[in-house]
Amino acid sequence: MDHAGTALHLAQACADAMYADDAASRALGIEIVDVAPGRAIATMRITEQMLNGHRIAHGGYVFLLADTAFAFACNTYNQRTVAAGCDIVFVDAVRDGDLLTASAVERVRSGRSGVYDVTVRRADGAVVAELRGRSRTIAGTLL
Asked: Domain 3-137 class?
């Protein structure tokens, strides 16, 4: 197996290990549909229980999906990595039944720090949120 294949295999193994222990994501129906070194794609369908008093998705759920994609992207190297901070911009409303896809991509990784961008889209392709996450590697490995 070449280096790229090995790195992809490691990223998938890390995602599988994380997902097995991620009760929050599993309980909300979040699926990790793709991973690669420094990248992850997660999906979640909005349910009625996720709606706020305006009958649109509570921003916390949109943030949670984006944060999940971020977490899986920055943990693709078998080094335990956590969020050091995040900023999110909500661009458009999300409604009951919407299928959201969060795509996370690594922008820079240096030493124990990283920066990741996450775009959250509805199934129609419309961007509903943008998140920038800052990561910090801590002690330990996933595998």
From this structure: alpha beta
Q: CA 37 to CA 30: how far, in whole Å?
A: 20
Residue 126 three-state SS: coil
Q: What spatial distance separates the first Cα and last Cα of the chain, rounded to whole Å?
A: 19
Domain locations in the chain as residue ranges:
3-137
Largest CA distance in the chain: 52
pTM: 0.96
| The two structure tokens encoding residue 76 | 């693709």
Residue 4 confidence (pLDDT): 72
60: enclosing H helix or E strand: helix 59-74
Cβ 84 vs Cβ 138: under 8 Å: no
Contacts 24+ apart (CB under 8 A), 62-65: 62/88, 62/90, 62/94, 62/100, 62/120, 62/128, 62/129, 63/88, 63/129, 63/131, 64/24, 64/28, 64/30, 65/30, 65/100, 65/102, 65/120
Determine what percent of the chain is predicted with pLDDT higher than 90.
Answer: 97
